[in-house]
Amino acid sequence: MLIMKDIIKQIKKDLAQVTDSSAVTALWQKYLGKQGEIKLALKALGDLDLETRRLEGPALQQLAKEAQSLFDDKQAILQADSLNKDLLSGVEQLDLTEPKLGHLHPITQTIRMMNQLFVELGYSVAEDAEIETDEFCFQRLNVPFDHPARDMQDTIYIKEPNWLLRTQTSSVEARILDKHQPPIKAVAPGRVYRNEKVNKSNHFIFHHYQGLVVLEQASLKDLFGTFSYLFRHMYGDDVVIRFRNKYYPEVEPGVGPDMQCFNCHGEGCALCKGVGWIEMGGAGMIHPNVLGMAGIDKQKWQGFAFGLGLDRWVMAKYKITDIRTLLGGNLGYKRDINENIL
Amino acid sequence: MKILYSQIKKLVPDLSADVYELGEFFTMTGLMMDGLTEVKYDGKKDWLLGLEVRQNRPDCLSLIGLAREVSAYFALPLVLPQTEKLEPVGPDLSIKISAKEVKRVLAVQLSVNAGLPSPTWLKEYLAFYDINSINLPVDLSNYVMLVTGYTSHLLDVDKLDGSLEWKLNKQSNKVTTLDNTELQLNGQELVISDKHKILALAGLVGCQSAAISQASTKIIVEMAVYDRFIVGENSRRLAVVTEAGNRLSRDMDLAGLDYAMALLYGLLAKHAGAQIKSQIFDYYPKPAPKRQIDLDLDLVGKLSGIEVSAERSKEILENLRCQVQSGETNKLVVVPPSDRLDLLLAEDLVDEIIRFVGYDTIPPDELPKLVVAPKITARLYYLKDRVRDILSARGFDEILSQPLVATDLNEQTNYLDWQVISTQNSVNEDFPDLRQSIATGLINQLLEFRKKNLEDIKIFEIGKVFGRQRQDYQEHEALGLLLLGQNGQPALNQLKIDLEYVVKFLGLTDIAYEVCQNSPTVANPHSCFKILIGRESIGIIYKLKPLADKKEAYFAELDLSLLDKLLDKINLNPAVEITTKLIALDANLILSSLDKFKKALAEARRSIGPNRLWAMSVIDQFALADKTRYTVRVTYQELSDQEAKQLHLKVFGLEAPTN
After folding, report:
1. Which of B56, B396, B428 sits opposite A204 (nearest CB)?
2. Domains recognised in chain B with CATH numbers
3. Chain A residues in contact with B428 (beta carbon < 8 A)
């Protein structure tokens, strides 16, 4: 047994020398394998008398267990070393470069804000042609061919007198009324064209936001309520608005919604031309002639419509001083600043 | 329309509202005050109000029209300026009306002392409207126009040759107007002429040929109303903008001429010693019929959303000089005054009632009850929004550009088989054409960014492009992507991956490319490819010809409207239940052209069939001497290893490996 007692020391010494798993296995074979020294000693116990077996057997068993434990520990250490080596070889550092984030155009963002609100209120979002006919841009909106109201909108024609570039998104309203039966709740953002010289504050291409509701019951009160909700959504709860009577051929009664000038708070300044209010678009109850031309029973259905000019609000919000910036040229985006999440 | 506060007070003497209250009233009831200036008139402090008069209210292009509004709203009496009755003396006037566009003409010959000076108050008054003093009769004529809204022409009888005639000009003539402008007529204009010459462009401006001067002693005064359309047309075509044209290109009350003429005569008699020297000529073939409107007062509440009593409604209409008769319960029969030509329907009367009740009495904060309406949003709208999100996440900035573009760049970027659509009358001559490719705006933006020294340029735009095929005007939504190469590194494939992200994210696979045979001029023809889904061409991708600063830029365009249509044809549900392991096998195809490879892939896809194919992708391509080796990885589903191998060998014509 003395020899066997020394063997643990020897195993420890041997194991200290080895650095890989296969060498550990070879040593294990030497000591604990079928022909290993410890295994053979355990087998030899059977040839001893009962008393000797009783005296030395448990000690030898304990020694074999201790030896096995040494080998297990060594293998565990080597595996851990190996894994660590693998991890070290695959080490990756964080790169300090950042992904470039793209941005949406302010007009798009504004349209999204408005759409979000109106979709929540159950509206659909409609789009239609920019090349329009005289019929859908004017006649269907109660602006007959010889009506002086057309003087308001210097039209860009592509083939006079019938084909033109839409002067207003009311043309989408006319298309919706033509294609769909009430009840109708829709908004229509889009690009419009007017025959104007381009300068810092006027462009011949700009953006409108049209709204249209045709229900069995709809009134100016509903229109005002919708507008108030929209204005608060866009400008915050402190916004001050007013509604005044204003003529548009496609509505009766007509409405001019104004917002108190955000620059002077109603005192009067250059931005609001001294009147303290900024015109935000046009609106009103849909003219019975418009419903009639669309084949909608005007006794049963009524509705309201509105059209807002998007560009000026966007300019104010983003502090853009030249309307031309919105359609190319000088509009850029700062890299590190994200957009508002709606 | 400008108006002096003192003049309103003169016609509505009991008015107690100050100028600010008056401005507020006008603004809230449809005539927005867009200017207010303190002035001095007739030696006293006064206020000049600027009002926006909309197209429906030509009656408010006059002092009397505006005073009527004030009188009605404040329920105060209106005192009209005194007139002088026209007592005909002498012969008939020789006048012929040959144009159906003439609705009424009132004319009379007067003796007059035109040499007397215009009084100061008159000259001052006209100056507020930027009207220069000419001579006393003309100044009074202009004054009456501002007071009543009706314009008049004064013709010097001594310069006339024979009868007056209202007719459509049938000749090409040159005329010189009263302000010494020479105009070329082309035979469409409504004119007043004598035997030999044109005396006036009816409804617009008089001509020098019959202009009165301080020496004139005999004049013919004519007032008329015409078909508004011909006046507006002549004004636009000849680019003649006058106070007269502004009024007569709108609907005017035919009956109002009598008062205006009597007022003018009275003033001429008082200030210029005028006396009547003829019979009154009155061409009035078709007096306007009386309008009678049935009004159900329920409509007031229905349109406004508030309660307005029948008594209040009736009171407002009567204050507005409507004749109102009560009919059945809650129903009125209303006859509007003849000068309110805008009142045609019951809704027009409701507008009158509500604007006077006040929009501020309608609660502004009540959201309408939620009524569900069918959803009509087109898929293309969502599709475009999704594309914007995908591209911004991939680092692209959105731009918007103008669809009207310069001819050169439009021609150089067009890649589709369609003709350009040009505008006929745009005042912006540099941008006459509707863009045929979305590249125009992106390229312009690229050049602008380069000027400003921006380096990291990845931009996109979604917008309409336009073209004509035969007689059809066409437009579709296009997506354009443009990026600037960095450090001379090729980036065409980077752009390809970006656009494939878009296409695949929208649900379309089977993207293919073929060499573009007719590349647009801006493209490098050797790096220009058509983009296909199946056999359908959905766009183009190319490298631009080098920029002036030698930088390389890349562009791709997709027809989003077409992509939207293609989505109708495919199954957009990629979710499946995986019940067996997937088996991925590779195959090398050595082929001489991209076309042949595409055909081979399509054939392989067909042979495997959708139920057994999980995915197929090109994982490598390697150029050989005269061919290309493409390595394709096919992932099979619902097959055992053995079945997948057998199918793979069969589909790609490979021999089974021998051990």
Report:
1. B428
2. 2-74 (3.30.56.10), 95-283 (3.50.40.10), 293-361 (3.30.56.10), 379-567 (3.30.930.10), 583-652 (3.30.70.380)
3. 197-198, 204
